[in-house]
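Entry 12.
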Amino acid sequence: MRNLGRAVLIYGWVALTLPGFASAPFPVGGWFPIPRSRLCVTEGTIEDAAGDRLTVNAPKMRAYVNAWTSQSMQVRFTYLGPTKTESALGAGQMRRQFGLKLHAQDPCNLVYAMWRIDPESKLVVSVKRNPSQHTSAECTNHGYTNIKPQKASAVPHLQSGESHTLRAEMKKQELRVFVDAREVWQGDIGADAARLEGPLGIRSDNVSLEFDLRAGEYEGPHPNYVKACKSGDSD
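Predicted 3D structure (tokens):
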């Protein structure tokens, strides 16, 4: 047993020091924090705030997690109100919203769970799918389909200074979204969207926030490396 223990320790040390085996980015089991260093920001800015939190105050913010995780994410946030300057969406609408990106294969192919704040308060899940396009310049704001939930309930209308938790959990095609531990959306995103291969991410439009992020451990064997940060391909 003593020799077996030494072998395990030696194997672990070798694995962590070989070029193809970067040190495990996250602990085993449960939820783990996503610091600023694990986020690749492709549009806008995310800054460090007090208490290991992050802050955003840009009209448009897009970012993804540059390491392997499961398709489950949780954000605890404080809504600070609208940004000082605002920017319309691609189709010309003015909207305030914040949410999570799942299976974010590229800017043209991914799943959104968005908490819309204004002009209407609601949780919207949509799939953006453009199979032959892979950059924002190609797909622009095309390819969105809102997914009808099997079960849903209302979300609070956010007021400045309020704090809440938004969590999304995906198992194969089933997506469940929670606000403050209460399920507000449950449904099937479809096999095509579930086959998309990409990381988690976050998005905001015209809102100021302080927040912290957590993600679930990747399930099953996976290449143990940090994904390269590729800027300039925002949604």
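Annotation: The chain has one domain: 25-216. The mean pLDDT is 85.
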